[in-house]
Amino acid sequence: MSSLQxxxxxxxxxxxxxxxxxxxxxxxxxxxxxxxxGIMEGLSRDLIRGTxxxxxxxxxIHHPAYPDARQLRQTLPAGPALMAxxxxxxxxxxxxARMFAYAYLSHGSRSSGVQLMGIDPVQERQVTTMxxxxxxGRYLDDEASPWPQARSLSVEQEAQDRALTEAAIAAAFDEGxxxxxxENERAARNAALAEQLAPRPTRTPGVVLGAQLAANLGLDPQxxxxxxxVLYETSQGLQGSMALHVRGTTRSGLDHQDRSRVxxxxxxxxxxxxLAGRAHEIALRLHDPSQADAVAARLQALPMEGEAHKVQxxxxxxxxxxxxxxxxxxxxxxxxxxxxxIAGVGVLNTxxxxxxxxxxxxxxxKALGLSPLHLVLLVAMETLLLCLAACTLGLLVGAGLxxxxxxxxxxVSRFGSFSMSGVDMAPKLRAQLQWQTxxxxxxxxxxxxxxxxxxxxxxxxxLTPATGLRAT
Amino acid sequence: xxxxQRLLARSAHSLxxxxxxxxxxIAPLAAxxxxxxxxxxxxxxxxxxxxxxxxxxxxKTSMGVMKMTxxxxxxxxxxxxxxxxxxxxxxxxxxxxxxxxxxxxxNATLKVGDRISFYDPRTRxxxxxxxxxxxxxxxxxxxxxxxxxxxxxxxRHYSYEVQAQEKTKDALGQPVQRWRIQLLPKAGAPVAWGxxxxxxxxxxxxxxxxxxxxxxxxxxxxxxAPVRSLRYSQLTQTEAGRLPMRMTMLALDKPGExxxxxxxxxxxxxxxxxxxxxxxxxx
Amino acid sequence: xxxxxxALRNLLRNGRRxxxxxxxxxxxxxxxxxxxxxxxxxHQAMVQVGVRMGLGDYILSQQDHLNDPSLQxxxxxxxxxxxxxxxxxxxxxxxxxxxxxxxxxxxxxxNTVAVMASGVDSRVEEQxxxxxxxxxxxxxxxxxxxxxxxxxxxxxxxxxxxxxKALDVRVGDRITLTVKPRDGQGFSRAAFEVGGIFxxxxxxxxxxxxxxxxxxxxxxxxxxxxxxxxALYLPRESLLPALQTRLAALRQGLLLxxxxxxxxxxxxNAAIALDAAGMSLLMLIVIVVVVAGVLNTVxxxxxxxxxxxxxxxxxxxxxxxxxxxxxxxxxxxxxxxxLLGLSLGYAAHLYFATVGLNFRxxxxxxxxxxxxxxxxxxxSSLAPLKLLAVAGTVLLLxxxxxxxxxxxxxxxxxxxxxxxx
Lengths: 472, 283, 421
Hints:
CATH superfamily of chain B: Lipoprotein localisation LolA/LolB/LppX
Order of helices and strands of chain B: HHEEEEEEHHEEEEEEE
Radius of gyration of chain B: 19 Å
Strand order of the largest sheet of chain A: 3-4-9-6-8-7
Oligomer: heterotrimer
Strand content of chain A: 15-25%
Structural class of chain B: alpha+beta
Number of helices of chain A: 17
Distance between the termini of chain B: 41 Å
Helix content of chain A: 55-70%
Shape of chain B: globular
Structural class of chain A: alpha+beta
């Protein structure tokens, strides 16, 4: 075998220019294929990232009926233990709990219906890029306002409560107005009971409004630190009003967010709605977004403290973007195929030429006793060695190119603006380096080259030495 | 499509209807329109009886203290309410003040015509609600839009068919004639029920009013099982005559769930001043 | 002339080699053309998704409506405005569609859900919207056909599948829609019959969207001849800037604001732009590979024929002749292949432009979720300028890469080459 190898090397070395050309061509094709696949992967990731990072997240968990009905009481458990458990799950990088409620915000004589969205800024930062939206003023504090602990009434307090109710009923039907002193005393006692059951925060909770909402309410865009009043209904059916402190405004570019969204701390909203430790939605960020469906399926089977839940991946939440990515992948995949094809044909061409040229030489070898099998092996060996050398070079260059594209990216801002979910995306085309991007082209190249080499090799082997020797 | 707008609409309607539910329970609405000429006197008589039954717990003005018990699959709550209504003018006025329990006490909702304002005793703040609030059913009860519009609906939007009239005794042992009336929506009527079955009692005396006994609501005309059933009970002799002091709305599609209203005191035709239906009445 | 004849004859003499190289170029050009068309067509299909989601290529509404989409900011005198817009956009817009949007409560029996109700002109709406057209309807009939089959003599609505489940309604059931009318006296309510149930695959729509006839919506809201928006649909997205210019004056006169689909669906817009960029880059790579292949061939053929060139030079041919022959060989080969490739590609494009490609067949069933909003087929769309640019680039690059071997061949020393055999 080794003599064949030596012969193969020497043959390659003898026609340096040709070997070099073919080799370089192969290497180029190889590296470009890698870059192509890398870009394809990078593009898909960017599209997914743009869709999911803004707000959706890779996977979302809800109470089973929530997506269709959006009732306040359709909640999930979201205590620290559960969140920790979720974050420890395979493939999950971070989890963020959210709560939603509809309320009525007023400032002076202006008012507007709003959607309250309670998030934990610390958790949310790890899952989405909401905190990066264009902003004026400040964002939410990491810490919620301090709320005193709610306590249920003691037995005597309950008796007191009942007495107050009786008194209220009696007073209601009195013809005259009740004595103001008595009224005040009763009111004070009632306030104390109410405060114990549903305490108010010791500091006004801070909120961040959508820019359009702030404008509609007549809030001065420069003057943050304004107070607004919110009217809302708790999960217990209790209506309440509260003052909120406007820390800043955001502009996402998405209509309904800018016009109606109010961001506040999750714990503040939980207390307001009397839904401590609960959430309406848990958004997850995964290490690998392409695994979203698999992770979602796994999480569906997870017992979340015994409560029913529904897990959806981003592709189920945003099927339109999924369609785009699938279409993109299909078309690009075909382009990659073209590249392989061309490269393969190129190699075939080269090898054919090479064999044809060396008919005399090969026939001589045959005449000298080299078996047809060995002849084929010789040619194949040449091809293989050439390919290996070329592919190694191609791998290196390809890896380098992909890495450059991954880190630097290609500026494509002239194609349009890129702002997804209100966050400006850097207008760059990036690649993603993975071992698959090397493996697939490599395997294909080897296969193609071998086939390309074998055909002329077999042809050469069939030549009768006499005919071959006469060729030029 | 804007999810916020959807839910705001929902809330707007729910508050308004919630107010009117309670108001309608004890307050009159504008006198029903005269029946279309050409309807038979039988139909007119039936319509009259239904109207009587519907307005049994109402007067021109009313004031009542009631206990509302709401039982749902995951919770049970009881509220004490004072409801005042004044329908003497075109602007219907309703004031609902919560009397208990502790967290709710002092909360008041005032509706004057189209303007709804809400008072929170803890912040002592009055908020005027233009057209939005939150919540689904009023305080989570089982009363629906249709119940709120019930009087208008049943006397205006349905065609009647008396199915049965039988002699029986009411809860106080008095002999009455129990009517069973089937109501089907008239063409184009803005109602969401396909069929309503109304049972009322008419006393033997010549001028006795009809009293409601049970109202069953069916989704589709050919359904056999009602989805909601409103039952009147606790027939009591009061100064205003015999009245059922308890209304129970059963949610038959959710077994075990109901909303019950018990009147503890009820007074009609008190002469309210305008003040009593204003923000000043909140304190 | 001599150079041309020599070039052509050389090409024909090395039939197999020429054929191979030609094949490479033909194949590449054909596929490139075909994919250019499909890619652009695919993007247009995606734009259609955006258009359908934003519900129009260009939407006109009262100027304050975008900030406050309530009944206070409607387009009045709607029929007249529609006529004016129609006239102004003639030749550009394929459809002008009026709509009235209402926040409403839908009630069926004891169940109530807050929804968005869209009053539409059913005949035209069905042609442009993907929400409640014939394809989307899974039970009953679309709006335009539903009125014919009414049980209760009530006007029809169509609603989403998830909504029908939440309300527990079937086709033929009676529902009511309640809205707060514009001149806010209490609430306005009317009964309707469920004429059809649709499924688009988009959660929001299937759970919270109701469509009803425009006249009924106007009646309900207490507004006559008022609408929320006029949606314009274009046969091609590229006509949008022209439309915007055409309507600018009218818009200002009528105090209307326009919003294009990509402003209404900005994420999809960004996604498509990114995708287009990626495609272009890939095309570039393909071109590079092709040219490399050509280079390889030309180089090899030139290098191989040193003796031949040596003879030519020895026989008195000028170096420039040799250069020209090599260049012309490359040019003829590339030119002919390009032409053939372009033709084949164009033929493929024509096929796909008429027959189209079925989305689902190509991309698999995991697009079920995308549902009905995705167009069933997408069609190839070719921008001739782009194509010619690509062809021109390949030709130019071919020339450039052939230059070196050509000149190299021209500078050969005849004696040396003849000795080398």
